[in-house]
Design a protein that fits this description.
alpha+beta, Elongation Factor Tu (Ef-tu), domain 3, 3 domains, 6-stranded mixed sheet, 19% helix, 35% strand, globular
Length: 420
């Protein structure tokens, strides 16, 4: 597997449109789940009165998820195709789990948006598509699922494609670059093998996955590792864990953590329980740092090289899209910002302008408020210093989501920074 290029892929879409079932089916068809396991799960699903959920069970391996029939946490699953080795980030569609979805999607190279042929575009179809875009997922495949439920009707498929193409365009995907694939995940139609009932399909879902582009690794950018956790391991010392966003980390490198402002030296780099001499973008690593105590650094810090340390913002200017807000966003509003691995309360200090959501041109200077569907340029003041970069220099470190009242209210990217 390891000799093929690796892609992180996230499955997104409205709740119950069949994300988990699609992933389960893909894993079965690519030989990553034995047939008998599906049989056992099928019996278990039927006993619980959840017939048809057997594939979803492959992903939802938490007991509570099985009883409720919903996806709660992000399950990591892997499969490979002729061209790629994929890690699936199975993102929950449920509203209260969008927080996990954000952390999931911000790591993804590509997304599969699963849409129910019967329902078509729903509220969360839009939200997830928009989030994927704002969080920097550059490639998308649209799987129009449950074609069996609409009797494999090409007319219905075409209608859904039209509806989603419109949406894709407003969000900034070019519809002619987005493959639309009719499937039925439950029966397996057109997932890995073409199907006579879906003779109008251009390709199978597997073909579409094989056709994704491998993203370039930003190895030439400065090193940035957002820290997910910090461990203290007996006999080794302090071990921060995180995924390299940009740059390259090597043994014996000097390293600095911001905004904690601690520094040390890299003594070992471990990935998948093996020691490595170096690590690059996309690698999830643990690395032992000499000269730094467990309490000197924390989740949300960013590691970089001392000659080009991670920038720390006192305030920053950002482009923000309001996804859903029960009232309006005005100056002084202070929700929680999720920026890579950090969660910090930040204040909307100034609403600079409101943009036309279709063209991105300024529509109104100094608006009084921003409401659902608006895109604006704003000045943000974090309640404590945070490490992030502007999107021109390092798009990988510029994105964030804004959460309040248990939902994602906005998402955006940092345009410029006032350093602390």
């Amino acid at each position: 597997m390891a000799d093929k290029p690796h892609l992180n892929i996230v499955f997104i879409g409205h709740v119950d449109h069949g994300k988990s079932t699609t992933v389960g089916r893909l894993m079965l068809e690519t030989g990553h789940i034995p047939e008998h396991l599906i049989e056992n799960l099928k019996e278990e699903a039927e006993e619980k009165g959840k017939g048809g959920f057997e594939f979803a069970y492959v992903m939802d391996n938490l007991k509570e998820e099985r009883e409720r029939g919903v996806t709660i946490d992000i399950a990591h699953k892997e499969f490979d195709t002729d061209n790629y080795y994929f890690t699936v980030i199975d993102a929950p569609g449920h509203r209260d789990f969008v927080k996990n979805m954000i952390t999931g999607t911000s790591q993804a190279d590509a997304a599969v948006l699963v849409v129910d042929a019967k329902d078509g575009v729903m509220a969360q179809t839009k939200e997830h598509m928009f989030l994927a875009r704002t969080l920097g997922v550059g490639q998308m495949i649209i799987a129009v699922n449950k074609m069996d439920a609409v009797n494999y009707d090409q007319g219905r498929f075409d209608d859904v494609v039209k509806e989603i193409s419109k949406l894709a365009q407003t969000v900034g995907f070019k519809p002619d670059e987005v493959p639309f694939v009719p499937i039925s995940a439950l029966t397996g139609d057109n997932v890995a093998e073409p199907n006579d009932d879906l003779g109008f399909a251009d390709m199978t879902l597997l073909d579409a996955l094989n056709g994704l582009q491998e993203p370039e690794k930003p190895v030439d950018k400065p090193l940035r590792i957002p820290i997910q956790d910090v461990y203290s391991i007996t006999g080794i010392g302090t071990v921060p864990v995180g995924r390299i966003e940009t740059g390259v980390l090597k043994l014996n490198d000097g390293i600095v953590f911001q905004p904690s402002d601690s520094s040390g030296e890299v003594k070992s780099i471990e990935m998948h329980h093996e020691e490595h001499e170096s690590a690059e973008p996309g690698d999830n690593i643990g690395f032992n740092v000499r000269g730094v105590g467990k309490d000197d650094i924390r989740r949300g810090d960013v590691a970089g090289h001392p000659d080009n340390p991670p920038s720390v913002a006192k305030t920053f200017k950002a482009q923000v899209a309001v996804l859903q807000h029960p009232s309006v966003i005005a100056e002084g509003y202070t929700p929680v910002f999720h920026i890579h691995t950090s969660q910090v309360a930040c204040m909307f200090e100034e609403l600079v302008s409101k943009l036309d959501p279709k063209t991105g041109e300024p529509q109104e200077e100094s608006p009084d408020y921003l409401k659902t569907g608006d895109i604006g340029i704003v000045k943000i003041r974090p309640t404590r210093p945070i490490s992030l970069e502007n999107s021109k220099e390092n798009p990988h470190m510029s994105r964030f989501a804004v959460r309040d009242m248990g939902q994602t209210v906005a998402a955006g990217l940092c345009l410029e920074i006032e350093p602390r």
